[in-house]
User: Fold this.
Amino acid sequence: MANKYDEAFEKSIKDPEAFWAEAAEDCHWYKKWDKVLDDSNTPFYRWFVGGEINSCYNALDYHIENGRGDQAALIYDSPVTDTIKKYTYTELRDEVAKFAGVLVDQGVQKGDRVILYMPMIPEAAIAMLACARIGAVHSVVFGGFAAKELATRIEDAKPKVMVSASCGIEVKKVIKYKPLLDEAIELSSSKPEKCVIFQRPMETASMVTGRDVDWSEAMARAKPHDCVPLAATDPLYILYTSGTTGEPKGIVRDNGGHVVSLKWTMNAIYNVDAGDVYWAASDVGWVVGHSYIVYGPLFKGCTTILFEGKPVGTPDAGVFWRVISEHEVNALFTAPTAFRAIKREDPNAELMKNYDLSSFKCLFLAGERSDPDTLQWAENSLKVPVIDHWWQTETGWAICANCMGLHQFPVKHGSPTKAAPGWDVQVVDADCKQVKAGDIGALVVKLPLPPGSLPTLYQNDARYKESYLDEFPGYYKTADAGYIDEEGYVYVMSRTDDIINVAGHRLSTGAMEEVLSDHSDVAECAVLGVEDNLKGQIPVGFMVLKAGVTRPNEEIVKEVVKMVRERIGPVAAFKTATVVNRLPKTRSGKILRGTIQKIADNKDYKVPATIDDPSVLGELEETLISIGYAKARKE
Ligand code: COA
Ligand code: AMP
Assistant:
């Protein structure tokens, strides 16, 4: 007999319009859509065309009008500042409405872009929702990115206003944000008219007269602003993510499809309802933060947790259990790397015993491949289901999951279970032909993508098409490789491009190579993601120096490490680079990155038939051993 998942999946693929129209009935619309799916301009698809909606209304006002005004909407838990602050739905709406007024006072209008460069404080969520309230398009930039990366995003999004804070706190370090903001604006040819700065008590930022506005002073003057009806297809936000070059991709999210899909996922995937407490331990700078710290839980009427801390060191590896117990969290979503960090510090989960975790029902993991060891450790210590699910910034929500609110399938370690309703996932070969069950190929999704996924890249339809749609006509290319087994379980094995996942953070090795190549002594280079016990992968750089360079290698290594930190940011965790005499290449001059990676990861490799000079591999292996990667391989 078909279960609820099978029924939902089948309907979503056979009759997506009916499936999503039904889900949309659960949301507030000023005006219902004329057409559920507009496919008149393929390969571009638009959902809920003609509909009018407001994301902030659906996240806040709707719940107040439906009796949830006094329920906690957001709990800010910050072990790094020793603060816990709760906002009811009414309190959060009032703050958001007032900040919407601040934005309007600064000249922000519907369609204007507002860049947010914020630490994990409630004001970040308030600013996002305030933009949504007035139809401004927010673009949040993760705080661990350097000024140069921020500048690239300013250049592309051309924000009218920027919102930032005086500092972030990384465990015990106070990271000054304002000098980075000022430098980024300096570097960019596009300049925001105003910057609204939230001054935190641990650091006072110096203000630029005429441009900078103090958050608290502006709030004191502002009048609350109401929600503005927006077209379902109007953009809600742009979120930049790593592409294969130094130019990040501006992922666009629309309003209508986003509200409908995220609200639907809260029960179907996460098995939570209005009133439940949901915690995504991520950062508002990432898609997980957008979808599941801010929007999804609030669309559903849940209580969301905004956590300013780390899984370890704030103050210890028991902090996740403290938060779950103190706020009676029902579902936690985080990256496997967080659990690897906890497991490393507290292998027997002793600290867990200090807390009452009876509220806790399920752990969800995503952002990188879940290694079976960590997954089992979490299962054994928490004694709740541990659900791996697979998604991307582009998709906005899970492509594959064990949909806990529909039907719980047996977990197979290493697989994020099955395609979620809406996602027609297939595995194809280079000729776009479906391969048989168990065979590895490119993971693709048959178009149209469901609501909530990217309609395009910001002001760049051509790059959207070229990056995602051209290689496999009729399909969306996920750029992940994997396979589907006989039972329909999907396995996501690796990226097919040069994106790596460092502690769940998505980074481009291509962008790092661009930085290394800019060093005046570097002739050529390769940056690869090498396996790491804690972060999953970390970048390692290989450089061939220009002829005649006599400076000590260590000096050059130090300089390139500093350059990556300054240009991309500390989040890149680029700490290892080495000088080599040669890089393995094909006869046509292409660097054999795959082979270098296999050697570094101590995996078996075949000497590629196209290699120019096989002796370079032995040389490389020795270098890798000398810096702590690879192990001597017996013949
Ligand atoms: N602002 C400024 N700097 C930041 C930052 C921020 N928001 N976030 C990270 N950084 C800095 C860190 O301070 C660190 O700098 P350092 O080189 O001076 O030490 C660097 O960027 C790397 O940070 P991080 O990736 O957090 O590594 P870590 O070694 O400090 O901690 C983990 C390791 C595993 C504990 C941590 O990565 C973690 O909590 N991961 C969870 C993953 C996650 O939430 N992913 C989101 C997708 S779901
Ligand atoms: P991001 O856009 O930062 O969310 O990163 C998306 C990429 O992370 C995907 O394309 C995958 O390579 C990887 N990823 C995310 N979730 C998973 C998962 N559950 N299993 C394997 N890889 C994952």
